[in-house]
## 1
Amino acid sequence: MRHADHFADATTAERGRRRGRAAMASLAIVASALGIHTAGRVAAFGSPHVVDSMTYAVAAYRLWQADPAPAVLVSDKPPGQAILTGWAFPAWPAEASRATLAPIETAFMLAAYAIFAAIALRVGGGAAAAVATLGLVIAVNSYNAFDSTTDGFNLAENYVSLPILLAVFGHVCVRSVGVGGVLTGAGLGLALAVKQTALAVTAAILLHSLYELLSGKAVRSRAVRLEWTLLGVGLSWLPIAAFMQAQGLLGRQIRDLFEHSAAHVAVRAPELPGAALVAPLFPLLLWMVIGGAARVTLGQRSDPSDVNRTGRSTVVFAAVWFTCELAMASLMTKPAEHYAQLVVPPAALLAAMGVSATARALASLNFHARKHAVVCLAAMTAGLFVSTTAPIISLARRNAPTIDLEREHARFEIALQRAEAVE
Amino acid sequence: MVVLTVELLSLLVVAMPAVAYGNAGGGAVRIAVEALVVAMIAAMPIIARRKGRRSPTVFCAALLFAALTPLAGDHARGWPARTSDAFSAARDLNVLMPALLVGGVGVLASRTRRFVRRAIVFVAAACMIATVAGAPGDLRVLAIPFWWHVPAGVRVIGRMVARPRVPALSRAIAACAIVVAVGYGWTALKHWMSGVGIAIAPLLADG
């Protein structure tokens, strides 16, 4: 009896130690993600070229005035970003400038990271969520901060990621047909109201739903889910349309969108992206490759209880989503790095699945083979993470001293006067 | 001979800007200082040889190459050679990545009783991250503890790839490690070659 009690105490103690280690690891991951995000924001905000961020900030400021001018919004962008951010200007205690939008942008991006971590946790487990979320934060901030065509602060991609990931969460993780459908629809509707490139994730969800219908899986519930999704889209568009109608801008904005959106896309001959464009994705691509090899290994073992089979639909969705985002990014006429930001979430989701599959495949190896494999993976992952993070930190160190909030206000005033003078 | 050629070419590159401005004395001082730094870094593999480790010559050459590449590449362009500013930190990190990766595998796969050596490597890693974030430090010097474990890392990865009856997944992981290390090494080699090319171009033009 005493031996059994001692054994039970030892097991409880070991469980407690594991929980402690997991808590420390989670804390380290969250702190790293926050640090990288902060460096990315400083690098983007401190960019010497202030282009798109000022245009969108001025548009958002003017939209929330009592009687906005007819041409207040950017003609080829939906009004979602201006509506979601412009409310901060009247509420801001200090003088209006681009800095007013910094807390809102950070809130959107941090919420997007958290939603992605929740998706990755459900799909792949704790380790997968940690690796994939860190890779997502690094890649998003890298593409954003190092954009060669504009400054990365206050871009639509920084706001559209949250509703896109909400839609994906509803589609992949929520089993309830009604709740999942409404969440997916609301996310898609809001995403499309912020940027038209959300058509890629919309197409991915539609194609995946079609795949499941053709597979004969729960046809009726899929059809009901589609109805709830359409309801969600309508619910998200209703307040936006009401606001725009109240400001007297709804009809004009719809006409402008239809007229000017097509100028930004064109079908071109496919060409391989340069190494600099792919570099931020290296950590995620590594796990996509390793995960693919692990899945092949798992597939060769004919074990009926293999959980590999139950995740196949999610893998198909992630692959379709990745392909759709790649296609959308390649259609854009301007070679801007920030267009690749929306390719990162599906790549990170595939990487999370890769981590999960690799962990399952490694469990079947003997101790020494497993140890050496884990050591190699840890060294490669850590090396690639540090290598892709270092440039962001370097750019933040260079741009941080140039940030001057008084100059920001003066710059904002000049941009406002120019915008009003154009009319 | 290969090591000597690499070293002489790189030191020539280091001296070129000073010589071009007619300051031969300055060029000589620069060569002397850099040669001293490189000698201190290169002492590690020589000590390793005395302790009976295998194949130190290859690692001596690779270490010298990694130490001199930033000098050759960026010094010729007038950029800082040491890890003294933000972008040179990112550059040095990429040049050293093969050693950090393979050395990291070597230290993580080592037996737990070599606690002190592991602790030194982890402290060096923490200092390297702090250097990238802005603390004063030289990444090439901080990478020395990783170089010490490179032979062990090469043995681990080599066994994962070459031994029979190794699981396919282990072989795939080791192959990825080799691809990543070679990819970073190739980038460093191109960096060095372009620096040497820029430095000796005036000599060829005058000749």
## 2
Amino acid sequence: MNELFLWRRGIRRPRIAASFEPEAKLPQRLVIPLEPADSTYGHALRVEAGEEILRHRLIGLGLGLAPSLHSPAAGTVESVEEKLLRPDGTFTRGIAIDVSGDRALEPKAVPLAETLPAQQILERIGDAGVALRGPRAISLRAAIEASRHPQGFLGATGGSVSRSLSHIVVRLADVDPSLASVSAAASLAEKKPDDLMLGLRLLTRATGASRITLVLHKGQKLPNVEGLAEELELGLLRVSAHRYPELAGPLVAAKASGIEPPVGIGPLYTSGVLVTDVDTVLEVVEAVRDGLPSVRPFVTISTSMEKTVRRVAIGTPLRAVIGAGARAEARKIALGGLMAGIAAPDFDQPVVKETDGVCVLPGKDVLCSQNLPCMGCGACARACPMRLVPSLLSRAAEFDQLDTARSLDIFHCIDCGVCGFVCPAGRSMVQLITAAKTALVPRGRV
Amino acid sequence: MRDPEIVVSMGPHAHSGRTVPRFMATRTLSLLPAAGFGVYQFGVGAALTLGAAVLGALVTEGALDVVSKRRPQALDGHAALQGLLLGMMLSPVAPWWVALIGGVAAVLIGKAPFGPLGGAPLSPAIVGLLVLAISFPQDLRQYAAPRTADPAWHAQDAARPEMPADAVLLDPSDAQEISTFHAFLGDQVGAIGAISPLLLLLGFWLMLWLRAGTWQGPLGYFLGMGMAAHLGHLLWPDSLPGASFHLTTGMSALCGLYLMTEPICTPVVPRGLFAFGVVAGALAVVLRASALPYAPEAWALAITMLATPLFDRIRPRPFGKVASHA
């Protein structure tokens, strides 16, 4: 009886059309951020300052859930202690690489990749650093292995519901319609459906999943992909093109499998469904068959002057990604889409594996939150895809009523930003809710 | 070239463009057809009453802005809207100073003590109306015949100056005299803005289309009212009129379509709003059968609004919530 009053949750957002340029030019200098060496999520340094390295050399070994990092270019390691400002205001260290030359490490290609046993596939995926994109990049290998071992993961809410993966959902469109990275990868898959088929086969073998569903939006025309889905008897799901966040992980998993996965207890892949994008599937093929590491995510560059998708090398600073004209008029840069992206604090921010978009907003498009008190109009409650009441949550957060926030199921919030979008009082909904979540976690009151 | 200064804030980095002034302006706009019809039917006096109520509310809000040095709120449209709603619920021959006092009371008692927009537990328009109903009951209960009324109505009104609702409750056989269809169109005697359910409905659709209101509340209200009225008529057919009467009075339409969709004092979640509407509608029918001197529907809404936090507890099960997990 949860949809007793049937109305469309989420909001309408126009989907952008972007051109696809396969490779972006490498900048003179790359700075790749490294997490401190930590067994749950961190990197172990594998290079030294002054070392000459080849393209695709391992520079940071991923520990725990972190994906391994490789150099996208040949050159010299200038420093391993470069101080980098993160978008959240904290500092981390990064590896600075002076780019020179073009020699690459010999990749260990495997022509008959589909004959590899599951363990070897997983190893090659892990060695290449293929990651699931999200607020933090999660190593695909670690995610698959975590889904088998309940003690391998401890969620924000302290518990873990762990089921082994039985269903793989592959999105061929972006969650945020202001990006086109996944659509661009889908057009690549359309040109090479055999690669997509190989990727799906490798993932199925690595996870042991028995079902695959491909998700497209209603405006997408991908005849080869659809033909492949028919031939292999895969599920094919079509969602609305202009609705956000129709393609968000839990929502699309629910539509594909017919069951709502538990939210707020652990990550989605521990509930039996792996939701990933087609660009990750193509990276799996590059990793397992071609032995190439994952160093060039698909990034949508959206400015007032261009809307392009490029495969940008990790470590590329934003100033090299955004054209000079767009840089001059930039007032805000959202890393990610306009809805759930993080604002970049400066132009030196590097592209990382999590980056799926760089949206440059000129002054006139940057809005000031008025942050008036909540009117109780209910627009947010009608729009929230998780069926929460953001109005009450934001009020509880504003007045430090953390117990109320917890009882209102605050950890089910997926930070989609729809509530903030519709609020007539101009409240910073996501900020308030995130502040409450952050306050609740360390106290153990989850 | 020096880098430009960039802004860092949390998402979302786009907004729908909805603002409070736009919200209030849409609601005010949707009231204008019915208000205009009221002025047409009852003449300049009605316009004066409406204007006085709006003025009273606006001036009080403005004065409070200045005196308390807070962020100016007079221009966000809420005070003016409440003044207009109040004026529309008053009798067409009520003196202008009564409307003025009502507007002042609405803001001073119904809105100001509760802080900025969003704090008031009751609709300021209702608070103003109730203050007037208690303070000046005689001034409010005088009625005039509308311009287009049947000459027979004119004759009747001279003898019975009460609202048609009261008249019918004194003698239910009168209910048959009132054609439901004509009453719906606007052939009623009542408060200034509460004579044409049709125009109120048209305005309500405009409000829905421009996303300044919800339909769940009104649906609940009319369902609750209809069921209670029907039940009452079945049990006591000689003393209570049926559902078709209750549903076509102008005050039902005004309360059910406009006061029910007030954002601040009504529940946030649609299903809670629906339940709220059912209770308010049923209570309105009950109170209409009681000896309340004026505006029983407003009293019913006021009582139900006090229970809004309770109705806020009626919420859907969140996505992915598993009952067995704490």
